[in-house]
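Continuing the batch. This is chain 6 of the set; chains 1 through 5 are on the previous pages. Same settings as before, nothing changed between runs. Recording input and output for traceability.
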Amino acid sequence: MSFSHPSEIILSSTDPELPDPIPPGLARYSNFREMARGGNALLRSCIDTVVGRTVAVKTLLPNVCRDRHERRRFLREARVTAQLQHPNTVPVYEIGDDPKEGLFFTMKRISGENFFEVLKRVARNDPQTLTMYPVRERIEIVSNVCQALAYAHLRGVIHRDVKPENIWVGNFGEVILLDWGVAKVWGHVDENPAIGASVLRVADDKDQLQALTQQGVRPGTPLYMSPEQVRGNRTIDERTDVFSVGVVLYEMLTLCEPFKGRTIDETFDNICHRELPPPSQRGTRDDVPPAIDDIVLKAIAKRPNDRYTHMRELVDALQDVAAHL
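Output for chain 6:
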């Protein structure tokens, strides 16, 4: 059996004439292969027969593809992702509504895995993973995520679901923040000079809790929510994402889920009231730099006013620590 050289495959896809007429919806795509399946959505790779490239396509699963709530969430994710054109977000190519499969959107196909899979192997002390992802590299990954969030915040978007599963680590160094399905886009903005932060008035946080606790999602993912989200505050700002990033940092360094309880209620109580020891003193790892302790604890402060006001401040602090490792 012989295989074509990759360059031959690329060249062969550039020669044919355009289909006439150009197929509508998902009919223009072929060679579908499943990449990942969640509680409500399916991600597949496929070939765009018009452009001649491999892309990723996301669709809702058949049991929810006509559900109004899921369609709204899906469209929000597609449109927000499409509008956030940053190196650490994934480019969206097309949004459509297929007669058979319903809503879909296509985006750049990036080979790799989510950050949670990396952390699981680090926790097992896998030698190859530890070589590829030492503490400094993991800090750089989260710093890149913060860059995407800083960009989004300046454009009035708060992610609200930052967690390792939503951080994609590519095979060629790419770091992509995914899943903007529960993001909030600024509707009405107040400027509070006391904190210097633009405030987002939230319509309702029930959408987010439903998305985070639905069947098929890793148990305990609500632990990345901020105290103000848990309490259902009507106003949140970018410091909510700062808190979630802080939880990711703590877990990344200690390989422990810091606020996870036996139930969601216990987890929420921990988020609102439990004070954590500095990561370097958690005792689970011996490679945690003490210089990062204050950064993490400030990011996960219970009161928003005690956290970093803007994501750029957290980026600068992380980059300074990484530079000295």
